[in-house]
Recover the amino acids of this structure.
C-alpha cells in the first residue's frame, strides 16, 4: 500500500506541472511565444547604442508581458491585442522592418508604428485580425503589401516621404473592409482612381496635399452621391479658386475642411444643412 506522504508528494508534483503548463499557455500571464516575439521586436528597434523606447521590456522581475509598457492584452485570453510602438526607435535612419516579427501575435488588432523613420517592410505583413494600422510619420518609399490584412478597418499612411507618389494605390484595393484611410501630407496632386474601389470606405483624409484644379472636387461629389456615408477632409495650398460646384451638392456631407487655401471669398454654404 502506497504511503500517504508519497501520494501527497505525487499530487503536489502533478499540481506543479499543471501550473507550469498553464503559465506556458497564458492562463497566468502572457503567452510565452508572444513574450519571445516582443523580445525580438525589441532587438529590431534597438538603436545604434543598443537603447530604444522598448528597453524596459524583459527587464526586472516582471515576466508577464501583458504588464509591460506599450502592450495591451485581452483580459480573457491574455493574448496581445494592441501594441503602441510610436517613436520606439531613436534614429532618423530607420531601415525596413521584417514583417515576420508580427507572426506570433495571433490576436493583434491595433498596432502603431508611427514616427519610426521606417522605409518599409521586408515580406508580407500577415496579421489576420489586425483592424487598425498606423504607419504615419515614417519614410516609406512605397506602400507595403497589405493584402493579407482582410480585417483592416483603419489605415494611416499620412506624413510619409515617398520616393514616388504617382503609383496607383492598387496595393490597397483588396482591403474590402477598410473604412478610414489617411493620406494627409502625402504630396498628392490628384486623387488616385483606385481608391474608389474601396467599397467600405467612410473616411478619406487628404489634408495638406497639393491637389489642384476642379477635378478632385467633382470626383468627390460623384463619389459621395454613390457613397453617402463617406466623409472627406480635403485641404490644399494649391487648389485655390477652383470652385465649389460639386461640393455644394453634397447634401449629406458632414465634414468640410478648406483650411490652408487662398480663397478671396467664402461661398455660401446655406444649402449644406448637414454640416
Amino acid at each position: 500500500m502506497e504511503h500517504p506522504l508519497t501520494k501527497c508528494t505525487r499530487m503536489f508534483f502533478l499540481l506543479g506541472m499543471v501550473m507550469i503548463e498553464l503559465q506556458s499557455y497564458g492562463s497566468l500571464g502572457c503567452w510565452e511565444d508572444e513574450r519571445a516575439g516582443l523580445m525580438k521586436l525589441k532587438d529590431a528597434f534597438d538603436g545604434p547604442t543598443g537603447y530604444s523606447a522598448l528597453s524596459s521590456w524583459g527587464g526586472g522581475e516582471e515576466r508577464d508581458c501583458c504588464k509591460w509598457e506599450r502592450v495591451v492584452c485581452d483580459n480573457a485570453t491574455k493574448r496581445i491585442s494592441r501594441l503602441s510602438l510610436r517613436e520606439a526607435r531613436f534614429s532618423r535612419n530607420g531601415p525596413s522592418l521584417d514583417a515576420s516579427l508580427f507572426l506570433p501575435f495571433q490576436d493583434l488588432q491595433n498596432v502603431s508604428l508611427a514616427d519610426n523613420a521606417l522605409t518599409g517592410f521586408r515580406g508580407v505583413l500577415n496579421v489576420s485580425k489586425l483592424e487598425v494600422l498606423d504607419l504615419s510619420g515614417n519614410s516609406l518609399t512605397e506602400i507595403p503589401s497589405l493584402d493579407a490584412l482582410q480585417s483592416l478597418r483603419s489605415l494611416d499612411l499620412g506624413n510619409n516621404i515617398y520616393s514616388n507618389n504617382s503609383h496607383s494605390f492598387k496595393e490597397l484595393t483588396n482591403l474590402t473592409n477598410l473604412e478610414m484611410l489617411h493620406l494627409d501630407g502625402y504630396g498628392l496632386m490628384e486623387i488616385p482612381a483606385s481608391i474608389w474601389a474601396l467599397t467600405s470606405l467612410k473616411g478619406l483624409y487628404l489634408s495638406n496635399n497639393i491637389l489642384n484644379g476642379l477635378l478632385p472636387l467633382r470626383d468627390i461629389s460623384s463619389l459621395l452621391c454613390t457613397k453617402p456615408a463617406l466623409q472627406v477632409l480635403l485641404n490644399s495650398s494649391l487648389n485655390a479658386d477652383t470652385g465649389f460646384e460639386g461640393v455644394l451638392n453634397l447634401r449629406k456631407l458632414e465634414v468640410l475642411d478648406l483650411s490652408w487655401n487662398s480663397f478671396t471669398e467664402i461661398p455660401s454654404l446655406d444649402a449644406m444643412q448637414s454640416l
User: Anything to note?
Assistant: The longest strand covers residues 80-84. The longest helix spans residues 4-24. DSSP finds three helices and ten strands in the chain. The radius of gyration is 25 Å.
